[in-house]
Write a structure and sequence with these properties.
The structure is a single chain. The longest helix is centred in the C-terminal third of the chain and has 36 residues, at 205-240. Residues 106-117 have low confidence and may be disordered. The chain has one domain: 3 helical TM bundles of succinate and fumarate reductases (Up-down Bundle), CATH 1.20.1300. It contains 11 helices and no strands. The protein is mainly α and 241 residues long. Helix content is 77%, strand content 0%. The termini are far apart.
């Protein structure tokens, strides 16, 4: 098919799956940042004794996690996550394919000199591999202890997301690995955001500059929410454990 065999088609797949990545990360970062808000309003660690959704005694972060467990979101999140996985794995496959075709370590065909001059553009495959590796690390901390038992009845379900945050980020080296992940994610998003719009034709001189600025702001906002969540959990850990 044209979309799989042509350079434009392959970039279009990356652009669409990249949109899934952005939506997924924005939702994920926002819910996680609720834990930081809880620290300021005194609700960090508040989990009601019952396991029902949206209990009155829950903190904002716990309510956000309950929202993620509602049927509509439970259906949407795997779809977004699948788009996320397709984006990373397909990107790695494209890079490997082009390295082999060109006989050297060069990224896939670029459409502009601005793109070629970007450090993140030249290292998207490396960034993707770093991000993918730490995603697996991340899944063992949260998904395996919340969504996996809930969806497939595998393992022991943990109803206290604050406890999981504290257990994960109480170790400084784990915090350091996550911060490295967020830096790699920032570079990946900064390039990926404007590259996505360029692929679908938004590459005019005026709007393209604006899209690049918006992309930097967007990537910075998402990554700062993740960083704030991790650092705050590290600070709060002695009070929870």
């Amino acid at each position: 098919m044209f979309i799989f065999t042509s350079s434009i088609g392959r970039k279009f797949i990356q652009a669409v799956s990249g949109a899934f990545l952005i939506i997924f990360l924005l939702l994920h970062a926002t819910i996680n940042f609720f834990s930081v808000i809880d620290s300021f309003n005194g609700s960090y660690g508040h989990v009601a004794a019952d396991e029902s959704l949206f209990s009155a005694g829950d903190g904002l972060f716990k309510l956000g996690c309950d929202f993620m467990s509602t049927p509509v979101i439970s259906i949407m999140v795997p779809v977004l996550a699948l788009g996320f996985a397709v984006h990373i794995l397909y990107g790695i496959w494209l890079s490997a394919r082009n390295i082999k075709a060109r006989g050297g370590i060069k990224r896939y065909e670029v459409a502009s000199k601005a793109e070629a001059d970007s450090w993140s553009a030249k290292n998207m495959c490396v960034l993707g591999i770093v991000i993918l590796g730490l995603i697996v690390f991340h899944l063992t901390h949260f998904w395996a202890k919340m969504q996996l038992p809930e969806l497939f009845n595998v393992g022991t379900f943990e109803n206290n997301p604050y406890l999981l945050l504290s257990l994960t980020f109480s170790k400084w080296w784990v915090l350091a690995l996550y911060l490295l992940w967020f830096v790699a994610l920032w570079f990946h998003l900064v390039h990926g955001f404007w590259s996505m719009f360029q692929t679908v034709g938004w590459n005019g001189k005026v709007w393209f500059k604006r899209v690049k600025v918006i992309g930097v702001i967007f990537a910075t906002l998402i990554c700062l929410m993740f960083v704030a969540t991790a650092v705050n959990a590290f600070i709060q850990a002695p009070n929870i454990l």
